[in-house]
Amino acid sequence: MECFMDHIVLNVEDSKNMMAFYSKILMFAPERLEEYDAGKVPFPSIRLNSNTIIDLFPKKMWQKDARDEQSSENLNHFCIALSKGTWQELLERLKANNINIQEGPVPRWGAHGTGTSIYFQDPEGNLIEARYYEDKNNVEKCLLGS
After folding, report:
1. Where are the transmembrane segments (predicted)?
2. Which of 41, 52, 64, 102 is most buried (CB neighbours < 10 A)?
3. For residues 70-102, b (16+ Cβ closer than 10 Å) or e, as one string?
């Protein structure tokens, strides 16, 4: 069976602040931002790679959602895998922007074995793990900095 992660959804209080964080700190490419600002689409997204996006649902979408109670506390964290060089650049940006590294660098097991990880939060408290695999040269290109 072939599959890939298509998207995750983050319920956000401040779409603009979250978009700024994910595009300027993590260097993910914004999607549908102009359309969102113009009121043509209900939410903006950020692109991690050719297969995966993160949708940023504004409060008006999730406040009324019957699933809110079920889904609001279930996400522990999500992890992005980067090349070692890109990971080091991200670490520098986090430090330069005074974003607290909550844990790491630490070894952690993941989809491709053991990698080196750091943990930090976005502006609304979502925990993000960023990692690299020392012996993994074929990590799918993340759109960081491209």
Report:
1. none
2. 52
3. eeeeeeeeeebbbbbebbeebbebbeeeebeee
pLDDT digit string, tens, across residues 109-129: 998 899 999 999 999 999 999
- The pTM score is 0.82
Between CA 120 and CA 127 the distance in angstroms is 6
Please check whether residue 144 is in contact with residue 28, taking contact to mean a CB–CB distance below 8 angstroms.
Answer: yes
CA atoms of 68 and 143, how far apart (whole Å): 30
Task: Single out the residue of 77, 95, 84 nearest to residue 25, CA to CA.
Answer: 95
In Å, what is the CA distance from 40 to each residue of 37, 44, 56? Answer: 8, 10, 15
Percent composition of the chain: helix, strand, coil (DSSP 3-state, to 5): 25, 30, 45
